[in-house]
Specification:
Blueprint lengths: L5 E6 L2 E6 L7 E3 L2 H15 L2 E5 L5 E6 L10
Parallel strand pairs: 1-4
Antiparallel strand pairs: 1-2, 2-3, 4-5
């Protein structure tokens, strides 16, 4: 099974951590920093990526905690 990337997304009442293929958030936080920390822990445990979205919903940053090939191909 492929690990699920963790998205940090804005919500009206704070920030949520939402796995890539799930409809529901796994956790909701008051601050973006708290949500990023929770997403990072989940990504490290599953060997996936954290994708951080800004207030407007656009991707701001991404960090990989998986098994990336180094050096990258291409």
């Amino acid at each position: 099974m492929k690990p699920k990337n963790q998205h940090v997304v804005p919500r009206p009442n704070g920030w949520a951590v939402k796995p890539e293929t799930n409809q529901r958030a796994t956790s909701i936080h008051r601050t973006q920093r708290q949500a990023i920390d929770a997403a990072r822990k989940a990504a490290i445990n599953s060997g996936s990526e954290v994708i951080i979205h800004g207030r407007g919903g656009r991707i701001r940053e991404r960090s990989s905690y998986g098994n990336d090939p180094f050096p990258p191909r291409g």
